[in-house]
Amino acid sequence: MPHKRSTPSAFYHAKELRRNLTPPERKLWAYLRDHQLNGLGFRRQHALGPFIVDFCCPERRTTIELDGHTHANQVEYDQARTQGLSEHGWNELRFTNREIEHNIEAVIQAITEALTPSQH
Q1: Residue 119: inside a domain
Q2: β-strands 51-57, 62-67: how paired?
Q3: Choice among 23-37, 74-88, 101-115 with the minimum mean pLDDT
Q4: Total number of domains in the chain
Q5: Which band of pLDDT confidence, cut at 50, 70 and 90, is reported for residue 55?
Q6: Exposure check for the chain: N or C terminus, fewer CB within 10 A?
Q7: Which CATH number characterizes residue 17's domain?
Q8: CA-to-CA distance for 27 and 80, rounded, in angstroms?
C-alpha cells in the first residue's frame, strides 16, 4: 500500500484538499508549519500510497488525522487505512475537530509527547 507510489489522481486530490483546508485543519497547520514544533517538518494533505493523510511528519513516520462528522460514516475505511499505514511503519495520531477547536494546547502537547524520542 503506502510503499507503492501514489497515483496521479491521489496527488491531484491531495492538492485540492490543501487548497480547501477545514477550519480545524487550518488551525492545527498554524502550529505545525515551518518546523515550529520541535524543528520537525510536517506535510499537509499528503498522499501516502493510496491514502491521503491530513498531516504527516516523515522524520518520525507519524500521521495526524482530524476526525470531523464525516468520519462516523467511514469507520471501516479509517480502520483499513490505519492498518495499512501501520504495516508500513507509520504511526497514527487521531484528534477530533472539537479537540482542535476547544483545546488546541492539549492537542499540541499530545503531538509533542508522541513525537519526542524516549530517553532510555
Answers
A1: no
A2: antiparallel
A3: 74-88
A4: 1
A5: very high
A6: C
A7: 3.40.960.10
A8: 27
